[in-house]
Write a structure and sequence with these properties.
Helices cover 31% and strands 16% of the residues. It folds into two domains: 6-140, Glycogen Phosphorylase B (Rossmann fold); 162-338, Rossmann fold. The protein is of the alpha/beta class. Strand 4, helix 5 and strand 5 form a beta-alpha-beta unit. It is globular and about 60 Å long. The strands form two sheets. The protein has a six-stranded parallel sheet with strand order 3-2-1-4-5-6. The chain has a six-stranded parallel sheet with strand order 9-8-7-10-11-12, with helices on both faces.
């Protein structure tokens, strides 16, 4: 097949955003099936990109979050010269636009922001009212200049690897006797996005009493949190795997789970993208801005007068947005799915 266009996308730096960006790739492929898409992204995300069939190649961006690395970006850009017809820069920072510019890519598309004139030569106006969701901001950059009718975002769909999943389950000595439920109690952004530890403990305990195998997933930084939930739940059916799996291994475990319960986090978006029924819990953020991109979800969000504040810690000190979401409500969402019910609730105001 003849390639119509070689495209370089500068990807986002957060797990959830990286998953949501697949909506852009799916949109571009739907418009032109012969387009070839490479993504410039942090090293941790490259295995995740391999699970997106729309991506030809992931290219490591070897710089820390917030690091300018001017000389390194220049070298990387020079190494990519002559390979691409166009670039789309998803982040709005100045540094994110440097590599395509150093690569001398003819057309470089991005939003206006951080004095990027010249670095971005296909500049798009940033209208937060029209682009009221992260995923809409991504797909807007894949639209033609002046195109106003925003298409419905295609749902992300990460490929699960059944063989890798079976090998992983064997390595971890997981022998589920029924449906599995995954709990993701962490949130990299901060505690104002985390449903209380005690609520996760009680939920895990109640599910364990039903004989449901409960897996707690998260990063190594969340290992103490996972161990505390495992210990306090007091059930042989509850096990913490925080820090014991890679991100892409979490993809396969989530694909094997019947239900995933998660704060608004990257793992929540992964669960939605592998087709697992997702029970999403929102505190300082809002499902209006970063919803799970699937119809197969129950969303718990209180929509208080102070919500959303988007703060890392509750500025009022009470965290009512999360404390008011009851274990009963979340348990009912999980139990309903375990019992085989098909009704989903996009937003449940607890």
């Amino acid at each position: 097949m003849t390639v119509s266009e070689k495209l370089l996308v500068v990807g986002p730096s957060w797990v959830g955003d990286m998953v949501m960006a697949q909506s852009l790739y799916k949109l571009l492929k739907a418009k032109d099936g012969s387009i070839s898409i490479d993504v410039l992204a942090p090293a941790w995300s490259l295995p995740l990109l391999e699970r997106m069939p729309e991506i030809e190649r992931g290219i490591e961006l070897p710089f820390g979050h917030g690091e300018l690395g001017l000389a390194g970006r220049r070298r990387l850009g020079h190494s990519l010269r002559g390979q691409y017809d166009r670039a789309i820069v998803l982040p709005r920072s100045l540094k994110s636009a440097l590599v395509p510019w150093f690569a001398s890519i003819r057309k470089r598309t991005g939003f206006r922001g951080e004095w990027r004139y010249g670095l971005i030569n296909d500049m798009r106006a940033f209208d937060p009212k029209r682009l009221d969701q992260t995923v809409r901001r991504f797909i807007a950059l894949g639209m033609a200049p002046g195109e106003r009718d925003m298409p419905d975002p295609p749902e992300p769909l990460l490929r699960a690897d059944a063989e890798a999943s079976a090998n992983l389950m064997a390595r971890l000595e997981l022998k589920p006797t029924g449906p599995m439920v995954a709990l993701m109690p962490g949130a990299e952004y901060g505690p104002a996005k985390q449903w209380p530890l005690a609520s996760y403990v009680l939920l895990a305990h109640r599910l364990g009493d039903l004989g449901v195998d409960v897996l707690i997933l998260g990063s190594a930084k969340e290992a103490p949190l996972g161990r505390e939930i495992e210990t306090a739940a007091g059930s042989r059916h509850v096990r913490s795997l925080c820090g014991e799996t890679t991100l892409v291994e979490a993809v396969d475990l989530l694909a094997a789970a019947r239900v995933a319960v998660s704060n608004d986090s990257g793992l929540m978006h992964i669960a939605a993208a592998v087709g697992t029924h997702t029970v999403a819990i929102y505190g300082s953020s809002t499902p209006d801005f970063t919803p799970p991109l699937t119809a197969n979800a129950d969303v718990h969000y209180r929509r208080l007068s102070c919500s959303p504040c988007f703060a890392r810690e509750c500025p009022l000190g009470h965290l009512d947005c999360l404390n008011g979401i009851t274990v009963d409500a979340v348990f009912d969402s999980v139990k309903c799915r375990l019992d085989g019910a098909s009704k989903n609730s996009r937003v449940a105001n607890d």
